[in-house]
């Protein structure tokens, strides 16, 4: 049976509209970052556009790669040398398109990292912080809901043991979260009067904030909390266009 294909520009236009990319002021360009083949039959999805992911996409005969963490970040060296040259050459030698969606994928209402993480953690979503919509909040719906129970559930669904700051016997009902490197949003979460905040990373001041405000902090892993969005996006593309979309996980302990 002949594989379905989609024009590169059609896919780019659709994802720009679906993910509302123009609504975000981001740290990198969202959308098509590197042009490859005009017709796309197979897509590889992954968290980060690393050399390992590109090599696996080549082995999988992919025409496009879609990631959450792409290239050309603000303040990056703009020269095509060294690591970036090696990665870019692999893409261009094999005419593979690279698409990247950062903040638009974090906060999408259906396939976003934050929404998908809430599903994994059994959180009933109530809303977003009124001044910082990157921070979501809701109610934990676990049958057993101490901080220890939540930590065990996080370990199970993300396959990674989190770092937890707080009293493990404390009951957790109201919870806020933001995937990835969002420890700097902790004060926004505290303003919401929650019992706990879940993010991907942690910094030195986080410990003191958690202790002094009596709000538990769960650092569940940047990579681990952001696998779910790109996976959901790939599933959406496959269902809508009939394209083959394969998620490839490149393990990352951070």
TrEMBL record:
Listed GO MF terms: metal ion binding
Keyword Kinase: no
Gene3D superfamilies named among the record's database cross-references: NIF3 (NGG1p interacting factor 3)-like
Keywords: Metal-binding
Stretch forming the signal peptide: none
Residues binding a divalent metal cation, per UniProt: 68-69, 106, 222, 226
One cellular component (GO) term of this entry: cytoplasm
Keyword presence, Metal-binding: yes
A Pfam short name: DUF34_NIF3
Family note: Belongs to the GTP cyclohydrolase I type 2/NIF3 family.
Name listed for the protein in its UniProt record: Dinuclear metal center protein, YbgI/SA1388 family
Native organism: Polynucleobacter kasalickyi
